[in-house]
Each structure stands twice: as structure tokens, then as C-alpha cells.
Amino acid sequence: MGVGRFVYTPALPLMQTQAGLSASAGAHLATANYVGYLGGALAGTLIPGLVRSPAALRTSLVALTGSLAAMPVTHGTTVWLGLRLVAGVASALVFVIAVTSVLGLLRGHPAHLPGWAFGGVGAGIAASGLLVLGLSPVADWRAVWWASAALTALLAGAAWRLRLELPAATASTASAVPVIPPVSAVSVGEGVGRPTATRHRRRWFAVLLASYTLEGTGYIVAGTFLVAAVAQTSPGWVGSGAWVLVGLAAVPSSALWTRLGRRRPLHDLLLAALVVQALGIALPALVSGVAAALLSAVLFGATFIGISTLALATGARLQVHRSVGLLTVGYSVGQILGPLAVTPLLRDGYRPALLLAAVVVLTSAVAAAALRVGLRHPTAATRTRRRPTPRQPATNQGDA
Predict the structure, then answer these.
(1) For the segment 215-225, what is each residue's pLDDT rounded down to a tens digit?
(2) 123 vs 69, 114, 250, CA distance in Å?
């Protein structure tokens, strides 16, 4: 899935210089992939039988491989749009099925193990960068797509007999942090009665949803155009090399953020990860040179999977019905909007697009900061209820 979905990013500069793809058409191809991904994710959510179907997994693997192999067969943008749409649907179904199976098979094991499985996405990103890095000096853009199709077919063969197993009924099939304990009464106002508690949870879930949707919008701009932006101001190898670093940094990120989630509040970690990611996105737009590009890649790769991990786990803690599904839809809609929002800026190069993306992620961080404040402090009604009476010291009520 990592190869099939993300090889487009390092292939984009080659398609622009060798296949005549314009910047706006490149943005539209990215959007088609993200629309397909949203459709595949919704299908996996609304049709539960898909996540336990070996036929659905294998069909998706074949469709993903075929969509990559067909890209160099034509120069037609319309056909490319259709192929990237198919790749989006197939990669989403592969991911949903794999996540469901991993959480089922690793039930009862240490929580960081699913995080390492999710690192496969990062490994695919790194592999796609290595393909372009190795082939671009000796071959054209067509060879990149054929090689990515061959690598995807090889990996699909390894995954062909993946054992599908559903998680326990109480486990989330999409949360990368299944070990988060239930949210405390104080943090969501449970002490003031069920209707008030429900409104409080929904209010702060809406803030989380806004933050995560903005993250989807900002992150995907870098996830689509980072290599092209770096290639404009750096030696030819740096763009693909930076993409390799994005993938390598992403491999351990989910497992590491999961471990940190055992020691620090999730909303604190979410805020920190968003600020670091905004810095990573803005860096190549503000500072030229190889060092800035490579540091940007590490910061971006180390955070984008971790942010999803933390946001989904925070949503689960708020105990809002279908929180994971709602957050996933918001994130996917943000991904669709991102390339469309920056298309008018691309005529001036990719730096303005990266700067706008960094501002959007910083806005997401502001929402996360508000969420952090709201979840750390109980409502006034809760504080009133918990205040000890004058006749009985707090120490006798166990409130100290």
C-alpha cells in the first residue's frame, strides 16, 4: 500500500519534465487518488464483510498492481485520473483489511507491535523513493511505474495469504493505540450528569475533528509535492533521497508515539507532533540547501503517522459514537481539499504551497491546544460539585 499510494510523489517531477504533466494536472491526479482512498475507506467501514474477505484483499492487491502497471501505457490525463482513482480505492481497502487483521492477530500482545505493522506504509514510501533514486539516472518515468508495479506485485505475493482475523468486539478496528484507558470523569465532565457530559464530549470532539481535518489538508500538500519542491532548488538526488528519509522516519513512528502515549497525555503529544510537522513542512520553503531538505523529510516522516495514531486514540477516549469513522472521513476530506487549495499557487513554484500547508497545520495545532486546555480542566459545574463543604475538610473526602 505504501508503494502503490505514495510512489506518485517521487515520480511527479519526472512526469513533469518527461511526460509533459503540468503542475495543475499533477494536483488533480493527486486529488483523484485521495477521492478514491476516501471511497475505499468508506466501503471498508460500511460493508463489514469486506474486512474479513480474502477475495476482497486479493482483488485489491491485483487492482493496485494493475493500476501502477497501466500508468506508462498512455499519456492521457483522463486515463491517469481513472488509474489513480482505482489505486486510491484499492490501497484504502488493503489498509483497512490489514489493520483489522493486525489488531485481531496481535490481541493481547504489547501495544507497540501494531505500530510496527503500520510502519509498513513507511517502508513502502522509502522503497518508492529508492526506485526513483536508482532509476532516474538511467531510465525514464515509464520505468519508474513499471518497477513500482513489479515491486507491488512481489509484496502482494507475500501478503496473498494474510490470515484475516477480526479484533475483539471491544477493540477499535482503526485505532493504532488500542491500549488507551477510558477517559477520566474529570476530563470530560462526567460528574455533572450524563446529558452535560455528553454535550461536553461532543463539543471537544468537534474541536478534535476540526484539528484532524486541517491536518489532513496540510499534511497531504507536503505528502504530494515535497519531492517536487525540493527538486526545484537542490541537486537531482536530493528530492528522492528526502522521500526515502520520510519513509525511514515513518517506519518506527507509530510504535514510538504509542510508547510515549503511555507516559504523556495524548493531547500534549498531539500538539507537539503538529508543531514539529508544521516546522518540517515550512523548512524547505524558508531555507534552501540539502541539510534543510533532509531535516524536513525526517520531521515530516516522524510525525504524519504518529498524528493519526494520537488523534484516533484521543477520539476513542472521548467516547463519541463512531469517532474513528468520523475522524477518518474528516481527514480524508482534508486530503482531497489540500491539492485543490494550493493549485492556484503552483504557477509560482512549490514554496508558496508548502508555506500555506505549514500555516494550515499550525492552525490545526491551535485547535489541538484548545483541546488540550479543555480536556485538562473540568467544567465549572464539575469543579463546584467536587468542592469540599466547609464542615468537612477535603482530606476527609479523599479529594486531596
Answers:
(1) 999 999 999 99
(2) 20, 15, 8
